Amino acid sequence: MKLWKGRFQKEADPKTNDFNSSISIDSRMARQDIEGSIAHAAMLGECGIIDKSESEKIQAGLKAILMDIESGALAIDPDAEDIHTFVEGELTKRLGDAGKRLHTARSRNDQVALDVRLTLREDCAGLKAQIKELITVLCKKAKQYAGAVMPGYTHLQRAQPITFGHHLLAYAEMLLRDLSRFEDALKRMDVMPLGSGALAGTTYPLDRELTAKLLGFSQVSQNSLDGVSDRDFCAEIAFAVSMAMVHLSRLCEEIVLWCSWEYKFIELDDAFSTGSSIMPQKKNPDLAELVRGKSGRVFGDLMGLLTMMKGLPLAYNKDMQEDKEAVFDAVDTLKLCLTPLIPMLETMTVLEKNMRSAAAKGFINATDCADFLVAEKGLPFRDAYKITGELVALCIEKDVTLETLPLTAYQAVCPAFDEGVYEAISLERCVEGRKVLGGPAPENVRMQADRVLGLLGA
Ligand code: ARG
């Protein structure tokens, strides 16, 4: 039986019900819906809008319903229109008239705006904890491999020597920004909408501040139309999730590359890899690929939310029911991706020797060779750059490296060279010298990893 049966002569067609219903998505908010209703009922009682004794009865009844849902004694009816209707119907079944008083001075429009906030508040807390865990793993690995020389790339071409620890800490920085994006979105979401009613507030003398306090909100919404039709927080959270997925996807792309025979910089633990049904030699980084792949659906969630909202007149429109499927899918996907990614990184084997030998090829110390002529021999950088370019061409021709090119060959191109050049272009010297703030020197990596762990309070 529908809530609005007074106005209607016919029952809804089952096809209408199936299409209109949101219970399959919003039953996830059962606990938050009940917590919101308990606070609303307590406030109605405090304000004398309903009898104190009835308020208490309602609150106890709601608590019992929550316990029964959580224990499995009460199944959520899949035919109910939405979770709000189901809970109110169940309360009325149990309490009779008292149950019917719960919805005084409230609409499902302000109720759903509250429930989504309460649910996302918890989901974001869980995501923040997981992101912190991932940052912690990255910092620990960074400290362990603070001195592991690897080639740094631009255009996917070997460019200059860096350390593996430094590379990992780049991701820690991205994830720190993700954390602050969630914190920021949570601050703006910290607004309690109950009291907005369907759209025009209510004539009852509500104490909205009390409801907000009971539910742990620091502010109440200031405009009833905006109170029921604001979904900025859904889009903001979907964006925070999308940006985090971009970061995870880039990390996963590198993991896939690093696992390949062409790189062999890392090996994933068997427990976090998969095999092939036909090729016995294969060990595939499926998890990393899936994270990369799932980023697309999250961007779709964000785009869907923005598009759903952009043409809506004030205030509530049923289009907005689509908000939950999108934003919950986004937060669920990030959670799903982080869950195996954290132990996958924790258990990976880092093949330091392979990284170092990749760094020894490709002339990634050419800048350091030029810098030697500048710092030790006083040449202008542009001249030193040109001389080093000639040396590189010579090495390619002779199939040697800057490390193995004899001093006589150096001096034939530029007489200023001496033995010191070999020390200057040693990979370890190259990374140790990059001590500038933000640089890859091993001592920087250790210091930065501790700084980040300190920020996390770890
Ligand atoms: N299931 C609805 C939603 O998620 C709840 C609000 C319904 N309000 C309405 N006026 N039909 O948006």
Structure, described:
This protein is mostly helical. It folds into three domains: 5-104, Fumarase C, Chain B, domain 1, CATH 1.10.275.10; 109-357, Fumarase C, Chain A, domain 2; 359-456, Fumarase/aspartase (C-terminal domain) (Ribonucleotide Reductase Protein R1, domain 1, Orthogonal Bundle). It is 64% helix and 5% strand. It is built from 20 helices and six strands. It has a two-stranded antiparallel ribbon. Helix 3 (30-46) packs antiparallel against helix 4 (52-71) and helix 15 (366-377) crosses helix 16 (381-398). It is elongated, with a radius of gyration of 31 Å. The chain starts with 13 loop residues before the first helix and ends with a helix. The mean pLDDT is 96. Bound molecules: arginine. Residues 22, 26, 82, 108-109, 112, 316, 318, 320-321 line the site of arginine.
Question: What are the defining features of this structure?
Answer:
single chain; 458 residues; mainly alpha; Fumarase C, Chain B, domain 1; Fumarase C, Chain A, domain 2; Ribonucleotide Reductase Protein R1, domain 1; 3 domains; two-stranded antiparallel ribbon; two-stranded parallel sheet; binds arginine
Categorize the overall geometry. elongated
- N-to-C order of helices and strands: HHHHHHHEEHEHEHHEHHEHHHHHHH
* Class by SSE composition: mainly alpha
Helix proportion range? 55-70%
- Average residue-wise pLDDT: 96
Distinct ligands, ions and cofactors found in the model:
arginine
The largest pleated sheet is described as: 2 strands, antiparallel
Strand content: under 5%
Widest beta sheet: strand line-up: 1-2
Question: Terminal Cα separation, in Å?
Answer: 54 Å
**From the alpha-carbon coordinates, what is the Rg to the nearest angstrom?**
31 Å
Query: How many domains?
Result: 3
CATH domain fold name of the largest domain: Fumarase C, Chain A, domain 2
